[in-house]
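Thread title: Can someone regenerate the structure for this chain?

I was given the following input by a collaborator and told the matching structure tokens would be attached. They weren't. Posting the sequence so someone can regenerate them.
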Amino acid sequence: MKMTFQNITLLYNELIAKNNSSICVFDLDSTIFNVSPRSQKILHEFALTNHLPELLNITVKTEDWGVYEALLRAGYTQIQNQDLHQALKKYWNEKFFSNEYLHYDTPYVGAIHFVQSLVSCGVTIHYLTGRDVTRMGNGTTEVLKKWGLPHSPEQTHLKPRKDLDDHLFKLEWMQKLAEKNPASIIYLFENEPVNINLVGDKIPQVRIIYMNTTHSRRETVRALHTEIFNYTIERS
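Best answer:
Regenerated them for you:
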């Protein structure tokens, strides 16, 4: 069940009107930041490192999940190119989940202005991400600072260990937030249906904002939600 806005102007106005009681929790990857440029850079370096110039012509699209779909579009099926798929997956995992490549991400349209506007109006902001502190903590802070977003440790929540389950980590953090702020209206901005459905099931009072960009394809969104495609605010 969902409500769909072609833009998020109505949602923005609602948040501003309830600024003193609103808490917005944002995922980062594929919610505020488009990660396809990160994957594109990694694919490009893999091609050069392994002397595979034909891979330089492959484009990672915004809606792709990793690089697997880009390879398939280019005709590199997994059955016929198993070694290539395995080598690229290993290389991509090492680079994608690291501090060094986060600065290739680009914000979605309107995302920076949207978050900054909420902050200036007194809305409480948090980031809740499946990134882990050891591999991606420093890079996350640097990128938030680079784009002029709030970046205090009190606002930025990464997994303490990479082996923690993303979905359970986010659910437990959201449950604690809801318990500590019973009078607040909590909004979760998230692109991954698995996370959305879990929070929707366990914490139904949370307002879920589904950023429809890309996701793992493991589930479809079934929790009550508002669907958005960018952060463009229309000015009257």
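Confidence is low (pLDDT under 50) at residues 1-6.
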